[in-house]
Amino acid sequence: MVTRVRSTYDRIAPVYDLMEGMMERKRMHKWRALVWSKVEGNTVLEVGVGTGKNFPYYPAGVEVTAIDYSGKMLARARKKAQIQGIKVRLEQMDAQDLAFPDNTFDIVIAICVFCSVPDPVRGLEEVKRVCKPGGKVVLLEHVLSANKIMAWLMNTVNPVVSTLMGPNINRRTVENVAKSGLKIERVTDLTGIFKLIEARKE
Known about the structure:
Helix 5 (about 120-130) packs across helix 7. A hairpin with a 4-residue loop joins strand 6 and strand 7 (about 195-200). The chain is an alpha/beta fold. It has helices at about 1-10, 15-20, 20-35, 70-85, 120-130, 150-165, 175-180; strands at about 45, 65-70, 90, 105-110, 130-140, 185-190, 195-200. The chain has a seven-stranded mixed sheet, with helices on both faces. It is globular and about 45 Å long.
């Protein structure tokens, strides 16, 4: 499953920014700024850096490590970081098996990532493990709609969407965060399917 997801994102890497351009201009740029305004502490892990869309929102004076499991997405992120003069440590890594010691980061951030992680609860457990005690986790994720008709439609088309584009559009990420053992502090409903989830490692 990991290999399939990686190959999907490797395939779409050259056109990824173009594919999401309209959504980026309409809403995502505001939501990215909101997410990164939540940063606490000095050491940050960004899970699923992709092509580096969050680089302009990195706060000054923090040490950011950013990972992705697609080598081709990372290649574009490295080029973008060089052009934009962004200081970031970029690593190719699976969110389900983070190669960091326990209690490493003050905060972990991910934007539209846990829709693509094959085992999202396992990935979130890894996020919890590498987060320091008392550290924060901030996620922006699209989730299964509470509307029954919309949920049925999302479940119906999900196999096609996930195969062609990577993400699963029917994840229950708020519930998955709770299952991982993180303590949910706040869930902000940005739209019917986009949620800002703030949690903490006790």
